[in-house]
Design goal:
- There is one protein chain.
- By secondary structure, the protein is an alpha+beta fold.
- The protein has a single domain (about 20-125), classed as Nuclear Transport Factor 2, Chain: A (Roll), CATH 3.10.450.
- Helices cover about 35% and strands about 40% of the residues.
- It contains four helices and five strands; from the N terminus they run H-H-H-H-E-E-E-E-E.
- It has helices at about 5-20, 25-40, 40-50, 55-60, and strands spanning about 70-80, 85-100, 100-105, 110-115, 120-125.
- Strands 1, 2, 3, 4 and 5 form a five-stranded antiparallel β-sheet that branches.
- It is globular and about 40 Å long.
- It starts with a helix and ends with a strand.
Length: about 130
């Protein structure tokens, strides 16, 4: 008869190692950050930013507080590693109403820098 404990021990080790890896992905971090900005959710934007970018995240999200904005076609892709950063590019547009005029902000105009910090991928600036 097989004893179940060696199998359970192996399963526990595998689950523990899986939990030690980074949470999420670089492209998901940027997607979540952009969504928080458009929603004018400063708290969420700061939570999605690296420590060095927190002040900027708060400012960017606050800039959408008086704007009616929505995302269209947001898709982000992980790119190369540059030093400590993973580069992410996005496609899509933020449609924002400024002073009664609809403006499109193309998301492919920026290259996002993402940093693995405290086991989480975090938005950390633009290149």
């Amino acid at each position: 008869m097989l004893r179940p404990w060696p199998h359970l021990l192996l399963l526990a080790i595998i689950l523990t190692l899986a939990a030690c890896g980074p949470s999420g992905s670089p492209e998901r971090a940027v997607t979540n950050y952009i969504e928080a900005m458009v929603d004018a959710d400063s708290v969420r934007a700061v939570n999605l930013a690296c420590t060095a970018w927190e002040k900027q995240a708060r400012t960017e999200a606050a800039s959408f507080e008086t704007v009616d904005a929505r995302l269209e076609g947001l898709v982000c892709m992980e790119g190369d590693q540059e030093g400590e950063f993973t580069i992410v590019t996005c496609q899509g547009v933020i449609r924002a109403m400024y002073d009664g005029e609809l403006q499109d902000l193309d998301l492919d105009r920026r290259t996002y820098q993402v940093l693995l910090e405290d086991g989480e991928w975090r938005m950390c600036g633009y290149k």
